[in-house]
Amino acid sequence: CREAYNLVRDDATEVNWVTFKYNGSTIVPGDQGVDYETFKRKCTDDVRLFGFVRFTTGDAMSKRVKFALITWIGEDVSGLQRAKTGTDKTLVKEVVQNFAKEFVISDHKELDEDYIKNELKKAGGANYDAQTE
Q1: What are the distances in angstroms from CA 14 to CA 57, 71, 74?
Q2: By the number of CB atoms within 10 A of the CB, which of 68, 91, 94, 95 ranks highest?
Q3: Rounded CA gap, 20 and 30, in Å?
Q4: Residue 41: helix, strand or coil by DSSP?
Q5: Where is the ADF-H domain (predicted)?
Q6: Sheet of 101-105, strand order
Q7: Do 88 and 27 form a contact (C-beta atoms < 8 A)?
Q8: CA distances (Å), 6 to each of 46, 96, 101, in order?
Q9: Rounded to two decimals, what is the model's pTM?
Q10: Cα–Cα distance between 75 and 108 in angstroms, integer?
């Protein structure tokens, strides 16, 4: 899991996201990729997974890389598994330690890239978007 995490953090790789999924009751590295839309397709109604995703935010004056930890719990996941996901997230956070914002999502609309980028921008403090007046 730490290797997968480091791939996303490494500026020398193109990997922008990784998932951590369940193999029975064990959390293991899942998929990885470059395109956020591909990550979103991994978030189906019958799974729960953790995603570590790199986003580039900012404007022409200042580009910044921000990281998000996304806990996805599909609508068809049982109540017991939902409850266990919260406890398991503690284990994931032992590996995934640096992120700007954490999301717990079960609605596909909240996976929208612009929504997440906007939330990351808010969490980032100073905002130097070009002012128009």
Answers
A1: 16, 22, 27
A2: 68
A3: 5
A4: helix
A5: 1-121
A6: 26-33, 17-23, 48-58, 63-73, 101-105
A7: yes
A8: 28, 9, 17
A9: 0.90
A10: 10
| Cα–Cα distance measured from residue 69 to residue 89, given in angstroms and rounded to the nearest whole number | 10
| Six token digits for residue 57 | 């935010």
Tokens 């998932």, residue located: 19
At residue 64, the 3 state secondary structure works out as strand
Q: What is the dihedral of CA 114, 116, 119, 121, to 10 degrees?
A: -70
Domains by residue range for the chain, with CATH: 1-119 (3.40.20.10)
> Rounded distance, CA 117 to CA 101, Å?
10
Count of beta carbons in the 10 Å neighbourhood of residue 67: 18
Output the tens digit of pLDDT for each of the chain's 133 residues.
999 999 999 999 999 999 999 999 899 999 999 999 999 999 999 999 999 999 987 777 778 899 999 999 999 999 999 999 999 999 999 999 999 999 999 999 999 999 999 999 887 665 555 444 3
Tokens of 79: 């109540």
Report the phi/psi class of residue 106: left, alpha or beta, with left for phi > 0 and alpha for psi in -120 to 50: alpha
